[in-house]
Amino acid sequence: MTRPNRPIYLDNHATTPVDPRVLAAMRPWWEENFSNPASIEHVMGRAAEAAVEEARADVAALIGAEAREIVLTSGATESNNLAIKGAARFAAAQESPRRRVVTVATEHKCVLESVKSLAAEGFEPVILPVQASGLLDLDALRAVVDEGTLLVSVMAVNNEIGVVQDLAAIGAIARAAGALFHTDAAQAAGRVPLDVNAIQADLLSLSGHKIYGPKGIGALYVRRRPRARIAPLLSGGGQERGLRSGTLPAPLVVGLGEAARIAASEGTLDAGRIAGQRDRLLAALQAGVPGLVVNGDAERRVGGNLNLTFPGAVDAQAIMAAVPEVCVSTGSACSSAEIEPSYVLKALGLPEDRARATLRIGIGRFTSPADVDQAAALLAEAWQQAASGQTER
């Protein structure tokens, strides 16, 4: 078939394009007022500080929090590290008897590695399996969360298979045991409704570039009442209430705030339209690829995600190589250097040959129906040719 004259971007879980409205909001803070937001002795510094605080309020509004509960960071990886290690180190400094830190096998690498690293500091990491659907078994969680548990960390929306965990139930289990509840909501913000009080979250991580904002900026929600206490990871000038030292990048903060504002006002409309595009793509692919399997729970999943295993053990890398114009992935961008198949798919029980035959597709705000139709045709054709070649051999 005719090749597209431009790439078709379907990797919105790895990163989203910056919304033009976000870019427009950021631009003056590079070109006109480039002042340090901490330089409040003069008018430009005070203006930058005011812009930062307005953005902080917009981020807070997206998740039902107070502006003073938002700590600005460089992104979700830093936020996750600060939440997990910060909570553990504060507890250790207070000689708390709570030593268990619970997470899930399908979490982002930065959460898994943060939790595992705490073993060297005298904590007890517990990594729970998931069901074949990708969802956490709540009874399994209840069995390990008790008075010795310090923290429970569960991702809101999985970055590979798109499943949406039952955050309200998880939060209630943690709260009943007196444990802190942290959720990595980088893939959830703007895609599903989030309310920190409804889910009883104590700590929640966000990332700008997952919500059509800039890279290099994110946030950590830290509950005030009942207060979640964490220790800082960085030493410095004491910015962000002493929890995250370093000069705030005003343009990036403004971009994060604008992206959050747009997500809060347009997220529901976006989600419905994106889910429709996903269903259109899936139907077209199923017509061209008999036996295609969707991984992850069919109902509790975010609207733009498709994690697809192609039949015939056709290597997903071969499909991608045949259609370089279609930008998809085999899993998390943060794990793409690894040779092994996705650990998330392994956790679901997929054998290695099926895991290697799996693609992740992420539809976003700027994906058009034409993109969907052309991508489906190209991917189906690539699979057909690859499968035919295997049969001939």
UniProtKB/TrEMBL annotation:
Span of the signal peptide: none
Residue ranges annotated for the Aminotransferase class V domain, each copy included: 8-374
Record keywords: Aminotransferase, Iron, Iron-sulfur, Metal-binding, Pyridoxal phosphate, Transferase
GO molecular function: transaminase activity
Domain of life: Bacteria
Reaction(s) this enzyme catalyzes, per UniProt: (sulfur carrier)-H + L-cysteine = (sulfur carrier)-SH + L-alanine
Co-factor(s): pyridoxal 5'-phosphate
Family statement: Belongs to the class-V pyridoxal-phosphate-dependent aminotransferase family. NifS/IscS subfamily.
Function comment: Catalyzes the removal of elemental sulfur atoms from cysteine to produce alanine. Seems to participate in the biosynthesis of the nitrogenase metalloclusters by providing the inorganic sulfur required for the Fe-S core formation.
Protein name according to UniProt: Cysteine desulfurase
Lineage: Bacteria, Pseudomonadati, Pseudomonadota, Alphaproteobacteria, Acetobacterales
